[in-house]
Design goal:
It is built from 15 helices and two strands. The protein is mostly helical and 329 residues long. The chain has a single domain, classed as ABC transporter involved in vitamin B12 uptake, BtuC. Strand 1 and strand 2 form a beta hairpin. Helix 2 crosses helix 10 and helix 6 packs antiparallel against helix 7. It is globular.
Length: 329
C-alpha cells in the first residue's frame, strides 16, 4: 500500500495504522505468563515473598515505577525515549519539599512541583520536535540538567522536616492498600482510555508506525511529539510527589537509575522499542515483572551489582522473544 492509500485509510478510519499494528499484537499474554512463572519460582525460593507485609511493600514500590512507565509508554509508542524521568522525580520531589519547608501551602507546592515536571517534559518535546537531535541525546542532557538543578536547589542535602499531613499520600492507606496503589490504578485506567478510545491515542500509535504517513494526513507531528513528552514529565512528577511524601523529605539523588527499570517495564510488557505497537496493559504487567524481580532478588540477598546484570539480560530476553514471535507470524 502506498503513502497516499495509507493517508486515505488513516483519515477514513481514524486509526488504520493503530489497528494493523495492534489487532493481533498481544505480547501482554506472554508477559502475563512470565509474571505468573516468576512469582511461582520466587514463592518457592523465598518464604517471605508471599507474606502480606512484603506484598504490600511490593505494590507500593511498583506503583512508583508503573506511574512513570505509563508516561514512558506514550513516548516509546512514538518511537522516542525519555532518559530524564529519574531526574524529574528528584527535581520535582526536592522542589515540592523545599516549597513546603518555606511555608508554602501544600497544594500550591504540589501544583508548582507538577509545573516543573511539565516544563522538563515540554523542554524535551520542544527540542526533539523542532530539531534533528535524537531523543536519546536530548533526554540524556535533560537528565543531567534535572539532577544538577535538584542538587543546586538543595545544596546536595535532603530537605526534611515536612509536616505529617504531607506524608499521608506516600505512607497512608485506603482499606488494605496504600494510597499510591489507588493512584497507580486511576492513572492506568485514564491512560488506557486515552490510548484506546481517543483520536489522540490513535495518532500516537500511528506516529510510531509511520511518521511520514501521519504528516501527510495533516496531523501536527510536532505538537504530537511535544505532548507525549509532557505526559512523561507529568507522570514522573506525580511519582516524585509520592516518593517525597513516602520518604518525608525531598531527596536530590532519588530516582537515580529508575529510567532503566521504567524502560524495562515498558519493553518487557511488549511495547516495541521502535514504536507503533504495544499496550498499556502490557506496561503494567511489565512493571509488576520488574518490581517482583527486584523484590525477589533482594529477598534472596543477590548483590545489587548482579541485579543490574540480571535486569539487562531480562530486557534482551524480552526483546529476543518478541522478535521471534513476530517473525513466526
Amino acid at each position: 500500500m502506498d503513502a497516499k492509500a495509507n493517508v486515505a485509510e488513516l483519515r477514513n478510519s481514524g486509526g488504520f495504522l493503530y489497528r494493523i499494528n495492534n489487532s493481533y499484537y498481544k505480547p501482554e499474554i506472554y508477559a502475563g505468563i512470565g509474571l505468573v512463572l516468576l512469582s511461582i519460582i520466587l514463592s518457592f525460593a523465598s518464604p517471605y515473598f508471599l507474606e502480606s507485609r512484603n506484598l504490600i511493600n511490593l505494590a507500593r514500590q511498583i506503583s512508583l515505577y508503573a506511574i512513570i512507565a505509563s508516561g514512558m509508554t506514550f513516548v516509546i509508542l512514538t518511537g522516542g525515549i525519555d532518559l530524564s524521568v529519574g531526574s524529574i522525580v528528584a527535581v520535582t520531589g526536592t522542589f515540592i519539599a523545599g516549597f513546603i519547608k518555606s511555608g508554602m501551602p501544600i497544594l500550591v507546592a504540589v501544583i508548582l512541583g507538577f509545573g516543573i515536571g511539565l516544563l522538563f517534559g515540554l523542554f524535551n518535546g520542544f527540542i526533539i520536535a523542532n530539531t534533528r537531535i535524537p531523543a536519546i541525546i536530548v533526554t540524556l542532557a535533560s537528565m543531567s540538567m534535572g539532577r544538577g538543578t535538584a542538587l543546586l536547589y538543595s545544596n546536595g542535602y535532603p530537605i526534611s522536616g515536612l509536616p505529617n499531613s504531607f506524608k499521608v499520600l506516600g505512607r497512608g492507606y485506603l482499606g488494605p492498600f496504600p494510597i499510591a496503589v489507588y493512584i497507580m490504578v486511576v492513572i492506568f485506567i485514564l491512560t488506557y482510555i486515552v490510548l484506546n478510545k481517543t483520536k489522540f491515542g490513535r495518532h500516537v500509535y500511528a506516529l510510531g508506525g509511520n511518521e511520514e504517513t501521519v504528516r501527510l494526513s495533516g496531523i501536527n507531528v510536532r505538537a504530537l511529539k511535544m505532548k507525549v513528552y509532557v505526559i512523561s514529565g507529568l507522570m514522573s512528577a506525580i511519582s516524585g510527589l509520592i516518593l517525597a511524601s513516602r520518604l518525608g523529605s525531598g531527596q536530590p539523588l532519588s530516582g537515580d537509575g529508575w529510567e532503566l527499570d521504567v524502560i524495562a517495564a515498558v519493553v518487557v510488557g511488549g511495547t516495541d522499542i521502535a514504536g507503533g505497537r504495544g499496550t498499556i496493559i502490557g506496561t503494567i504487567i511489565g512493571a509488576f515483572i520488574i518490581g517482583v524481580l527486584n523484590n525477589g532478588l533482594n529477598l534472596l540477598n543477590v548483590s545489587p551489582y548482579l541485579q543490574l546484570v540480571v535486569k539487562g539480560l531480562v530486557i534482551i530476553g524480552a526483546v529476543f522473544v518478541r522478535a521471534g514471535v513476530n517473525k513466526a507470524k
